[in-house]
Write a structure and sequence with these properties.
By secondary structure, the protein is α+β, with helices and mostly antiparallel strands. Helices cover 47% and strands 15% of the residues. The strands form two sheets. A five-stranded mixed beta sheet has the order 1-2-3-4-7. The longest helix is centred in the middle third of the chain and has 23 residues. 24% of the residues are buried.
Length: 158
């Protein structure tokens, strides 16, 4: 679903940006990859990690949610590096969208990163009755989105 315009869209405050960046640094410490790792490889590592966390029955729900925020933040950094999207906060009275989103440069597409990651790690991203980890798929699909033909703004992908 997209909108011609959306109210309540703003840049992140310095504090919000620092908090998200801090989450990403936590994920980097967990994954322990090299400095020259490509965004594509980092996204693959994130996907594998999220699958393992989802399947870990001994991992408490609050820990899973924390991991969703840290891994989601690191995933978002890869989207920003590769596709030049940016963070925005949406608090819209005309839609059901609230929270932190990655937004394409032309504002035609957006992704509710944290909701997306929580949904996957909690096992609620169902496709044909199975939890579907679409972290890598969505990352790769961003390159194929129809930016030119998109008439609305803020079409949500996840």
């Amino acid at each position: 679903m997209g909108f011609k315009t959306m109210d309540g869209v703003r840049m992140l405050s310095a504090e919000e940006y620092d908090e998200i960046t801090g989450f990403a640094r936590e994920a980097e410490e967990i994954l322990e990859y090299g400095q020259n790792e490509s965004p594509e490889n980092i996204v693959k590592m994130i996907g594998v990690f999220i699958d393992c966390a989802y399947r870990d029955e001994n991992l408490p729900q609050d820990s899973k949610q924390e991991l969703a925020f840290s891994m989601g933040s690191l995933w978002a950094e890869q989207v920003i590096k590769k596709y030049h999207w940016d963070w925005r906060h949406i608090d819209s009275e005309t839609s059901n969208y609230h929270g932190f989103f990655l937004i394409s440069e032309d504002e035609s597409y957006c992704c509710p990163v944290f909701q997306f990651f929580v949904k996957i790690i909690m096992g609620n991203n169902l496709y044909e009755g199975e939890n579907d980890n679409t972290i890598e798929l969505i990352f790769n699909m961003i390159a194929e989105l129809d930016y030119e033909g998109c008439k609305d703004k803020f079409n949500v992908i996840w």
